[in-house]
Amino acid sequence: MTKRRRVPAMAPEDRRSALIAATVTLLREYGTAVSTRQIAEAAGVAEGTIFGVFPDKASLLRAALMSAFDPQPLLDALVAIGTQIELRARLREAVTTLRTGMSANANLVVAPRELMAEDAEFRERMMDGRHRISAGLAALVEPDRDRLRRSPEATAQLLLMLIAVSVHRGFGHGGELGDLNDEEIVSLLLDGLLVRPSPTASTESAS
Q1: How many other CB atoms are found less than 10 A from the CB of residue 97?
Q2: 11-25, 105-119, 120-134, 136-150: range with lowest mean pLDDT
Q3: Domains and CATH numbers, the chain
Q4: Residue 174 confidence (pLDDT)
Q5: What pTM did the predictor assign?
Q6: Phi, psi at residue 193, to the nearest 5°?
């Protein structure tokens, strides 16, 4: 039997952070069915240690979900993209960043309904996180406001919708947009759905 990896003694806040980090990883793999024994082994502590930090398993899972859906890492990544590069390239980097984050949490989408149904604070934090990410995207688009038919805020909302349906393949009608890649998402947003003929084809038809 593999022995549990023991970690050195930690300050209470560090121990709490280690338990949350281990739980986030396991939640993404197993969902809320993860056991406290699995969590303890992943964190390298005795199972009883969990209950010295959290009153029960549900409290730990709630804290882990709040950590998993914390928008700040995504917001920092969006800010790091900056507005100096061309709009299409800017949005492509943003889509890659957001799809990576959404994909990591794809299996957690239903978990909040099970654990947070009566948690008003969590619901408010989730809504606030969505608004902040949308605002971060709008800020990336803002320098090109005059080039777009819709406001940066509306553009950000449309982009988030496209990203969501590409990640959550069961969303909508049969998940037919699940094969969208980063490039196509940006193209759909900026160019629409019409297939444009190549310059060669246009020249030939004119002659």
Answers
A1: 19
A2: 105-119
A3: 12-65 (1.10.10.60), 69-191 (1.10.357)
A4: 45
A5: 0.79
A6: -100, -15
pLDDT in tens, 66-102: 899 999 999 999 999 999 999 999 999 999 999 999 9
Biggest CA–CA distance in the chain, Å, is: 81
Residue of 168, 17, 173 whose CA lies nearest to 106: 168
Segment 45-48 long-range contacts (CB within 8 Å, at least 24 positions apart): 45/6, 45/7, 45/15, 45/18, 45/19
What's the chain's Rg over C-alpha atoms? Answer: 22
6: left (phi > 0), else alpha (psi -120 to 50), else beta? beta
Taking the mean position of all CA atoms in its chain, how far away is CA 176? 20
Tokens at residue 114, please? 């099970």
Q: Considering only 45-59, 91-105, 116-130, which range has the smallest mean pLDDT?
A: 116-130
Residue with tokens 């619901």: 123
Side-chain half-sphere exposure of 113, counting CA atoms within 13 A? 4
Local structure of residue 45 (DSSP, 8 states): S
Measured from the Cβ of residue 134, the count of other Cβ atoms closer than 10 Å reads 19
Distance CA 5, CA 201 (A): 65
Phi, psi of 54 (to 5 degrees): -120, 145
Q: Which residue has the tokens 């990591």?
A: 104
Q: Tell me the H-state helices in 46-110.
A: 47-53, 57-68, 72-81, 87-104
Residues 83 and 81: their CA atoms lie apart, in Å, by: 7
